[in-house]
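Collaborator request, handled under Task 6.
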Amino acid sequence: MIEKNTTKNVDLNTINGRIKYFIENILQITPNEFSRNLGKNRSDWLYKILKNEVEPGPKTLNQIFDVYPDHKFWILTGDKESEPVDQKTNDSSFENLKIDDKLIELYKLTLGKLSMQEKDIMLLDRKVDVLKKQNENMTEEIRDLKNLVQELINH
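Structure tokens returned to the collaborator:
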């Protein structure tokens, strides 16, 4: 067992960082042990992932998830509420999911779209604020005009 590490120097926003954190902090084993648990004699492939030189491919992800299915969702998403995943409550449709290039691209595309949508929402929120202020101003102007019309009628 290796000494428990901190999240220092580990970017949990990347799948590489989550794999590193998973090995060092959740499993508390060495990369060599992790590689052997996946049935591989060498771990040079894993060090490339841990050093952010390459991203894990679909085959590698499927090998990890075959051995560690309870942590699939967290490794993929980093969702804090999903770690650890209780096997009894794990969604069976997700449990049987196999990762392929299309799914990885979809995941990256979705993250990009979410970021763009967040920016769009912020811009729309600003526009709503401007429209609310304009509405308040127009409501005051209408009230003033009504008062003026009423005064003219009364005279």
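The cover message to the collaborator said: "Helices lie at 15-27, 31-37, 44-50, 58-67, 72-77, 92-95, 101-154. DSSP finds seven helices and no strands in the chain. Please let us know whether this matches your experimental observations."
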